[in-house]
Amino acid sequence: MRSLLSTTAALLLGATIANSQEMNNLNTNYSLAPQQELALAQQWDKTFPQSEKVDHRKVTFVNRYGITLVADMYTPKEVEGKLKAIAISGPFGAVKEQVSGLYAQHLAERGFLTIAFDPSFTGESGGMPRCVASPDINTEDFSAAVDFLSVQPNVDAGCIGILGICGWGGLAINAAANDPRIKATVASTMYDMSRAASNGYFDANDHPDVRYRMLEGMAEQRTADYKAGKYSRAGGVADPLPDDAPQFVKEYHAYYKTPRGYHERSGNSTDGWNVTSNLPFINFPLLSRAGEIRNAVLIIHGDKAHSLYFGKTAFSLLRGDNKDMIIVADANHTDLYDNLEKIPFHQIADFFNVRMK
Which ranges in 164-234 belong to alpha helices (H)? Predict the structure, then answer.
């Protein structure tokens, strides 16, 4: 084996040397991609009131794919020195003016420097085409947020955590498996988007024939999109609701389609994802390395959430005595979006304080 590896390395090195003159002739730039110039909203346009206990400002940073991400930074006013920091995103199809910003502001009130960011291709962040999701790039978005936080002068670079909500809970766990700099991870009311995309809700479509028909449909949509020169949208949360809408769809509607949580940049509030966005999630098992996460993880779910099975499965994959799960009594999936009587902010703050040392 060592001989084979050595031979492979030599061949690669030889190819590198042989191509060095050609590479020298290229205008190659190995520096980080420059940040895009983006038009950012300057007014307070969140779905929650602004806190007087924290300072707020917009920040931008670039991910490994050269996409500029936009975040709201919340800094506690009466805390000095280097702070523990948390990067927050989600729910899937939402923007930072909704749930992630609410979480960020409340945790900043508890002494953390926090950022709530719009993932690539969504909200105020850059990336083309718009309204597309990627298990790879969106996992990278969390690590890019860690990049940014780690160089802030008022952040303790050894105490950076992440928090993912809904579909970004599964992506946060995937990021934690990939990035040891993430000292603690919280997944709140999480979805495993790979499982949801490939198996359907409650695994009802977990059959090769069903998946194949789904893939056929999205493949045909790709052709149609290419012919049309634009991407067809799947639509956000149904509005008006059909008479036979499941209870959890009614709960989504009550958040995304009413003044409670509506935001004009939110895909769930408006026209949704590109129809083909599910494609990469079908063959990308987000939780495949969850059992190898060495740093701390906390999973939070409501006992009445339709999505509870995602959290229970994720927790069963984790290993080590620094893994915890909180099941919130009498709480559904969207209660953990904005119900301040249900979201266990004190326990979340305690988790980050204890586990990020």
Answer: 167-178, 193-199, 208-228
